[in-house]
Predict the 3D structure of the following.
Amino acid sequence: MNLIFLGPPGAGKGTQAQRLEKEAGARQLSTGDMLREAVASGSEIGRRAKAIMDKGELVSDEVVIGIVGERLGQERQGFILDGFPRTVAQAEALDRLLAEKKLKLDRVVEFAVDDEALVDRLSGRFNCKSCGAMYHDRHKRPKVAGLCDRCGGREFLRRPDDNPETIRTRLAAYARQTAPLLPYYRGKGLLLTVDGMADIAQVAGLIDRALGQKG
Ligand code: ADP
Ligand code: ADP
Ligand code: ZN
């Protein structure tokens, strides 16, 4: 299945995309991860993107569409777009890319979460340095303290943009630039909304049921 996960920063998109990747073999395509890789590589695009990401604003449509265009279409068991599209221009570009590559979008899953919960989730977020597995100080601790459940790694990272000031800018960018995608996909009959306020296991069940995979 080819899916888009849509929702504000901290809504749980990455957590659920990682799970579906493991359980269903679909490939998670996170533009945030791709941009952080570009930053780490020290490329010109990465240098310019870093300044924008540190402020919590959106990287230009042109750059992001270019990155997705290079990646999309190599998945054997479907993709989950996580964090893309984030503007109507990106959604329109995605429609063109999908048509060119003869791919079809099956569903857009919206994660509905209150702003206060988002601040709490982003403030406590950290991930494994070697495998990227996602954790939270209170909501999802590693089973053995200091050890990654998935790969046994001992080093963890916190994102520089998960600070209160940048979080506010990111939430405002979502409301202004990304929320208009909800009516865009509702109009195409693709939008499914899940209650992202439930706990991680419950959200997983809601998604599976909504997609008709299980239960
Ligand atoms: P997004 O990819 O939408 O920005 P993440 O999947 O990174 O969101 O989740 C943000 C933080 O919230 C992470 O620390 C994650 O462990 C935690 N989290 C994810 N889903 C839930 C949930 N349903 N309830 C509580 N915490 C959650
Ligand atoms: P989160 O899911 O926690 O909001 P992401 O990892 O998706 O964070 O994105 C981190 C940052 O990368 C964003 O704040 C933005 O600067 C940039 N970014 C990621 N995806 C896009 C996109 N589709 N368009 C523009 N900027 C993006
Ligand atoms: Zn790990």
Observations:
- The chain is about 45% helix and 15% strand.
